[in-house]
């Protein structure tokens, strides 16, 4: 799954270009950098690869979401509808701009259930944030229709789905804005980094300014820049961008291996009676970072995970017990143990929505296992793993059916 598995000569070459000049900052120092502009080059490469018109690199995926929200005009008191199953960064970003994350149920796509979204729309709703979890996509047509009906912003958190497509378009380029993360465990990495994608010049310009203290990057030099839009420092460094440049050029290679290994595991597990699979709105666009499947009951999923570990088969995520990806364990969100001071309105809103029951999501996530797909497996190794997993799953399902 992650790009770090295939880190090598190409990444070192790009980093060395930067080390030769010693100019580690992405802006300025024009005369000293010998024409080396890795962040700019990576932004151009991202636009070329994904067909977006504008790309703004930042220091992380969380910074990308925060920057995108600010550039989209989401702020104090606004509600952002997002799924109960995501990485915590999605709601952190919403909270950091003063807005309120409205968590709603997922369906068997493992992300937003459009019906739950429709029900959650209020007069305060400003945006819908689908999260393309575990390499695959949300029901974007339905979500887009809801956005159009209620005049809402669509912000795609595509941090885990770089290179995935929906009906021919890259995930992250379909909404008003989208984000990727290049942190160390993502499909491509630059150690720490992220990007905001958009086809709107206005949103792009604001993202550009927001991520660099408001600099409009239009002056003769940095000192002569103006600041039409307030900002912070979410800049990426040239060193990080250099790694990302090598990695984005290898994305096609990574996806090919990943999809091959994903196919091997899927073709074996699909024969296990009683096992069902995550619904994928456009199967051709799946990146294959994980194969996510459901057992008939929570107990069976727990047993299977335990037996995988006992058999030395690692990398199977049971999200229901995970501290970082599912609402059940987000006490820090539910109990309002805030580090910062928030307005009473925001705090009340956050705690209200975070403390709703999620019986539908519980029923889905408690039966779900996401099996991560490595770039390092040969086809033979993938097949061997698949066979071992299938045997365990068959056994777990049969055993429980006998006693049921
Ligand atoms: C990783 C991730 C992020 C945040 O990215 P960082 O680069 O780690 O800050 C946001 N959303 C999702 C769904 C992620 O998986």
Please, could you describe this protein's structure?
With 404 residues, the protein is an alpha/beta fold. The protein folds into 2 domains: 249 residues, Type I PLP-dependent aspartate aminotransferase-like (Major domain) (Aspartate Aminotransferase, domain 2), CATH 3.40.640.10; 148 residues, Aspartate Aminotransferase, domain 1, CATH 3.90.1150.10. The protein has a 7-stranded mixed sheet with strand order 1-9-8-5-4-2-3, sandwiched between helices. β6 and β7 form a beta hairpin. α3 crosses α7 and α9 runs parallel beside α14. The chain is globular. The mean pLDDT is 96. Bound molecules: pyridoxal-5'-phosphate. Pyridoxal-5'-phosphate binds next to α3 and α4. Keywords: Aminotransferase, Pyridoxal phosphate, Transferase. One of its GO terms (biological process) is polysaccharide biosynthetic process. One of its GO terms (molecular function) is pyridoxal phosphate binding.
The largest beta-sheet arranges its strands as 1-9-8-5-4-2-3
Query: What is the N-to-C succession of helices and strands?
Result: HHEHEHEHEHEEEEEHHHEEHEHHHEH
The hetero molecules present are: pyridoxal-5'-phosphate
Identify low-pLDDT runs. Answer: none
Distance between termini?
A: 37 Å
- Overall mean pLDDT: 96
> How would a textbook summarize the main sheet?
7 strands, mixed
């Amino acid at each position: 799954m992650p790009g770090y598995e295939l880190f090598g000569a190409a990444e070192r070459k790009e980093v060395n270009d930067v080390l030769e000049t010693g100019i580690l900052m992405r802006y300025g120092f024009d005369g000293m950098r010998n024409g080396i502009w890795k962040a700019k080059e990576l932004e151009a490469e991202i636009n070329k690869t994904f067909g977006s018109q504008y790309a703004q690199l930042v220091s992380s995926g969380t910074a990308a979401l925060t920057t995108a929200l600010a550039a989209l005009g989401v702020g104090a008191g606004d509600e952002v509808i997002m799924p109960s199953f995501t990485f915590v960064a999605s709601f952190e970003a919403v909270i950091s701009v003063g807005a309120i994350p409205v968590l709603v149920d997922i369906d068997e796509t493992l992300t937003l259930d459009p019906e739950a979204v429709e029900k959650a729309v209020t007069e305060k709703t400003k945006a819908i944030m689908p999260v393309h979890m575990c390499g695959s996509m949300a029901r974007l047509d339905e979500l887009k229709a809801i956005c159009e009906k209620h005049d809402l912003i669509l912000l795609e958190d595509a941090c885990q789905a770089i290179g995935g497509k929906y009906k021919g378009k890259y995930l992250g380029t379909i909404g008003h804005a989208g984000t990727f993360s290049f942190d160390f465990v993502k499909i491509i990495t630059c150690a720490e980094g992220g990007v905001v994608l958009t086809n709107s010049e206005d949103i792009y310009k604001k993202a550009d300014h927001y991520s660099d203290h408001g600099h409009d990057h239009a002056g003769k030099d940095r000192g002569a820049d103006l600041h039409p839009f307030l900002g912070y420092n979410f800049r990426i460094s040239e060193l990080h961008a250099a790694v990302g440049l090598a990695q984005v050029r290898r994305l096609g290679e990574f996806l090919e291996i990943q999809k091959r290994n994903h196919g091997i595991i899927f073709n074996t597990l699909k024969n296990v009676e009683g096992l069902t699979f995550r619904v994928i709105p456009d199967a051709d666009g799946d990146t294959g970072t994980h194969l996510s499947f459901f057992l008939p009951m929570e107990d069976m999923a727990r047993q299977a995970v335990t037996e995988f570990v006992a058999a030395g088969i690692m990398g199977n995520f049971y999200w229901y017990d995970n501290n970082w990806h599912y609402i059940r364990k987000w006490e820090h969100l539910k109990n309002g143990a805030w580090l910062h001071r928030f307005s009473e309105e925001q705090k009340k809103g956050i705690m209200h929505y975070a403390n709703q029951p999620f019986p539908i999501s519980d029923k889905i996530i408690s039966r779900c296992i996401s099996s991560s797909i490595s770039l390092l497996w040969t086809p033979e190794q993938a097949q061997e793993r698949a066979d071992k997993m299938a045997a365990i799953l068959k056994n777990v399902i049969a055993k429980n059916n006998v006693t049921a």
